[in-house]
Amino acid sequence: MNKKIHAVIFDLDGTLTEPVLDFDLIRSEIGQISGPILEAMDKMAASQRQRAEEILRKHERLAVEQSRLNPGVHEVMDWLRQHDKRIGLFTRNQRESVETFCRMHHLVFDGIVTREDGPYKPDPFPVACACQQMRVRAEAAVVVGDYVFDLMSGRRAGARTVLLGTHKSYQKFTDHADFVILNLAELPGVIENLENSQFCQSRVRIADKGS
């Protein structure tokens, strides 16, 4: 069986960038919502939703303006290109913010899926859509994220999942991950292990080593 990894799909906030979005502040400004913001907005009346979207877009634009890449992003991207891997991005953010982010940080992706494209993570659609854009099977893709929704979306689509331990509660999400890493520099090793079939039958938590 061919175990070659053809693509890696990254989350944005907290994975490629240091976490910036203050979701508690966003919920407070919108008012009278709890839990995931997009799901709460789906239940709003049109006028209330329009106001909420304006607040959310404001925070997303500000987050991009203030964004700083996590260590190792460009190095990992270069490694992936050198090893013939396609690179995707999936996010619950708006496309406008994603395009600004890419220009600011000189990053190019082979597939991009935002909340305007269809059902958003934890639905499998964003991963399946990114794979379709990149013409790869989900089984030949690796999803990298810092939050449980990233991992759930990847798992449901049939991809391998890598949890980047940047979220303050990342240890609560490890059961949804095939691998756990503490920094992006460990990702090439994960991909090489997958392709060499060393860890195909068991979950490996790289972050547990030395933690």
Task: Give the strand order, joined by hyphens, for the main sheet.
Answer: 3-2-1-4-5-6
Shape: globular
Any idea how many domains? Answer: 2
Number of discrete helical segments: 8
Kindly provide the name of the CATH class of the largest domain: Alpha Beta
Helix content: 25-40%
Extract low-pLDDT stretches. Answer: 200-204, 206-211
User: CATH topology of the largest domain, what is it called?
Assistant: Rossmann fold
Total beta strands: 6
H/E topology pattern: EHHHHEHEHEHEEH
Strand content: 5-15%
Cα-based radius of gyration, to the nearest Å: 17 Å
Q: What would CATH call the homologous superfamily of the largest domain?
A: HAD superfamily/HAD-like
Output mean pLDDT. 90
Largest sheet: 6 strands, parallel
Structural description of this entry:
By secondary structure, the chain is of the alpha/beta class. The chain has 2 domains: 7-19 and 69-208, Rossmann fold (3-Layer(aba) Sandwich), CATH 3.40.50.1000; 23-65, no CATH class. It contains 8 helices and 6 strands; from the N terminus they run E-H-H-H-H-E-H-E-H-E-H-E-E-H. Strands 3-2-1-4-5-6 form a 6-stranded parallel sheet, sandwiched between helices.
